[in-house]
Amino acid sequence: MTETMPGRAHGRAAAIIATLDTKEGEARFLHRALCARGYEVRIVDVSTRADPPASLDPADATRERVAASAGVSLAALAAMRRDEAMAAMGRGAAAILRGWLDEGLLGGVIGIGGHQGTTISGLAMRALPLGFPRVLVSTVASGNVRPFVGAADVAILFSVGDLLGGPNRVTRPVLARAAGMLAGMMEAAGPLAAPRAPAVAITALGNTHAAVQRIIASLGAHGYEVVPFHASGAGGSAMEALIRGREFEAVIDLTPHELLGEVLGDDIYAPVTSGRLTAAGETGVPQVVAPGGLDYLVFGAEDTIPARYRGRPTHHHNPYNTNVRATPAELRRVGEALAQRLNAARGPVVFLNPLRGWSHIGAEGGPLWDPAANDALREVLRRALAPAIRYVEVDAGINDPRFADAVVAAARELLGRSGEPAGPRAPAEGGVPC
Prior knowledge:
By secondary structure, the protein is an alpha/beta fold. It contains 14 helices and 14 strands. The protein has helices spanning 20-36, 63-69, 74-79, 82-102, 115-125, 146-149, 171-188, 209-221, 234-244, 257-264, 279-283, 328-343, 371-384, 401-416, and strands at residues 13-18, 40-45, 106-113, 134-138, 155-158, 199-204, 225-230, 250-253, 287-289, 296-299, 314-318, 321-325, 349-354, 390-394. 47% of the residues are buried.
């Protein structure tokens, strides 16, 4: 996912991704449901088995065509290891969908499957741009779906029953709702109006909420649209992709918590795609960076915390989210990675360090307050950051209004180098008062 949909005309064709050797009945049901709503429907057969080919219309994509689009013959596909064959069909389906999209034909995609079909559909759907209508009906949707969809905005629906033998009293209404979901998305997904205000990205967690809210309001009053991203793995990865797509004039990485997960490897908020804090540097986009959320690791319920992290100061955020204090040694590792990535930036960078805490729970007096541990990262940055990077210490906590105002001032200074927007932000597009 490296682009967005604004300005692109939508087609009226809906594509169905399915392994027809096992899911033909379900695919045909979806075909009829979408045809009844007035859509042209195209089937993409991603079967990897050498069963007799299903009967398809000329506009559909046979398994031979899908494999060929990945540069693989059916004979080669049959000789591949199962995971390699699935990856090839995912690439081939992605190439076909992108071709239909580029021709202005495609308006939405629905995928169905068990683990295999979910894997292939996910690979194909991730090649489509942000905002494109995508629905995935899966037997494994109640589990960890991160490997399937990454940071793509795919709507996922649990099939409840297995997708086998054609629709039945359990799966038929699920599939009908899925067709309705895709149709609704396609109706709502017309080309977006051109933005009226320059955009700034900002990262957030609940523990930095107060600062983010103040920054959004302040920059909004000065003519900027501030887009927050939840630093929970997919959010930061999505932001990185959008930065590479040139969606933002500047980035305020207030809460780069995902870097801690990327470096240490255990945090459940590790980024979906490695490389946090690299996109802005590579593209020269101005950055204001702070250490929000770097003071703790995030795990699931308390019983999921690995043994080596137990016995530390711990905050129970909710029944499924437990926060464990990061140590000085861990923060030195994070600091080295942070300095290395910021030093490689091609654009201007300001790092603001709030000395009285990097989160609500890590603020002075909070359950994870540990200034000595924070100083470990502070010492690394003061030593390792390149002279071109402005390092500023603020005697306040991250959620203190004084710190938020310092972030706004730094951002406006960097943004001013490329021209300050004139006047307050224009009113939001579309709609009438309700």
